[in-house]
Amino acid sequence: MGVDATSGHKAQSDLSRHEADHPSSAVAHFAAHEPLMLDSGFALAPWQIAYQTYGTLNKDRSNAILICHALTGDQHVANVNPVTGKPGWWTSMVGPGKPFDTDRFFIICANVLGSCMGTSGPASLNAATQNPWAVDFPVVTIRDMVRAQARLLDRLGIESLFCVAGGSMGGMQVLQWASTFPDRVFSAIPLATGAKHSAQNIAFHEVGRQAVMADPDWHGGHYRLQGIRPEKGLAVARMAAHITYLSEGALHRKFGRRLQDRAAPTFSFDADFEIESYLRYQGRSFVERFDANSYLYLTRAMDYFDLADDAGGKLAAVFKGTKARFCVASFTSDWLFPTRDSRAIVHALNAAGASVSFVEIETDKGHDAFLLDEPVLFATTRGFIDAAARARHLPEASR
Amino acid sequence: MNDHSSRVDLLLVADMIEKGARVLDVGCGDGSLLQILTDQRQVDGRGIELSQSGVNGCVAKGLSVIQGDADTDLIDYPDDAFDYVILSQTLQATRQPREVVKHLLRIGRRAIVSFPNFGHWRIRAQVAFLGRMPVTKNLSYAWYDTPNIHFCTIRDFISLCDELQADVEKAVALDRNGSAMRMNLPWAVWNMFGEQAVFMLKRHGIK
Lengths: 399, 207
What we know:
The complex is a heterodimer. By secondary structure, chain A is of the alpha/beta class. In chain A, 37% of the residues lie in helices and 15% in strands. The relative contact order of chain A is 0.13. Helices cover 36% and strands 23% of the residues of chain B. A seven-stranded mixed beta sheet of chain B has the order 3-2-1-4-5-7-6, sandwiched between helices. The radius of gyration of chain B is 16 Å and the shape is globular. Classes of the chains: A alpha/beta, B alpha/beta. Chains A and B meet through strand 13, helix 10, strand 14 and helix 11 of A and helix 3 and strand 3 of B.
């Protein structure tokens, strides 16, 4: 690796550390007397939530859409990411004329509680100690994330959301919104998600957390005080997780057994195969932008998620009486949140008499398909959003 | 399926449904009937469709449709969840038609079932005189690739209704041109000359 690459790497990780407390997006601050009450019983204060908005809120305040991001996502849905310099993570879905049309709707995306891009989390400064929270930060849940978002909406003066949408961990937040704040959700789009985290998914997360914590640079979570980060552990965690976001078919199609810049195996443990080189790159670039402790907290939040727990184990009871309309989508090659997880949600919604649409989209792109160019997903979302907008008496799209 | 006659079939079903009712269309295809019901009858409509392309098309039109199978997924619906449950031109493609009709009667206050009549004289004639499995304009599949695995005649269907203790509230047979046949004709005539039948059923004893 050249000198330039190393200094670029350093610059990006410095940037990401800075973003944790001073995000380059809007921030809502909540003072010591405005605590966020968490499921763990902890009263978090002061705290802050960083967010981006796109489009214009209409006079009736009826056209707001909340986008919920996934595990390692952030609030930069449709603008250049301030840390990576790359385009927003959902520019395929959010923008002028896109299914989430910024010409028609007021789009909000907030960094989730426990993350590291400006909303309070383990990477943020603990006002009491003037050190980073690190592992002293309280363990948070998906419901805590949603409560924090609701507090933000209160600040913005938005009583009812036209739509809540998101995939994976974002989809969990969507379902939690519909359950915790049924009167504030007009429509909901949970994508590639489940009403609970499966044993297999918890197992994968545990491997990732153990990789981070086994890295001596983790220092019991207080690596920032040592001026160091558990880069190797977090990279391994990301590499393992990344495999679960893809599918065997896509790996075979993209990489097969092809060798990386060489004609023959080197009889060493160098990255001989393209897939190895690709995973190492994924691991490397992830540690530059993401906080290792945040990774522990957010994976934990997903593990704890079991929506039916809110209603004595009966998922249908969670949605009883809901007036929201739902659009559920799964992808055929997603083995992290397989179609049967989405079907369980759909069955519960049907049993609750809710209005629900459900599509299973044929693709070999695995779990990550919800982030990628999937025309069927665009058409489905557009059709659902347009019908919901008519039902809410919002003006038609101008184009 | 013949476009003209299928349209008549849809309109006939639509005519049976009250405005603003809660409707489930089982096997809703491309959503034509749900669209008609939504536009003309302002129903609260839902659909189940087996084919992915059908579902995707419906949802893109803004209809509330889920991917599912009449044979396996009706069990998830609670009793009396809908005013009307419709099974339009799908009965003959189900694996367990008897169970499916039972579920329709359980889920809906009324069940509307339409199906091609296998007792029509042209079909009888093909089997009787040509010794071949029938292929007609409305039933255009060859025996080896047909999705239609459980054909019945109007008479067969009526005896199934008796077995399930379902009351026939309305029944219409369509002739070859897609026009409704006169109501006062005996079943045997319908069974011979009706190409399609539409039945509205309810559980015996409910209002």
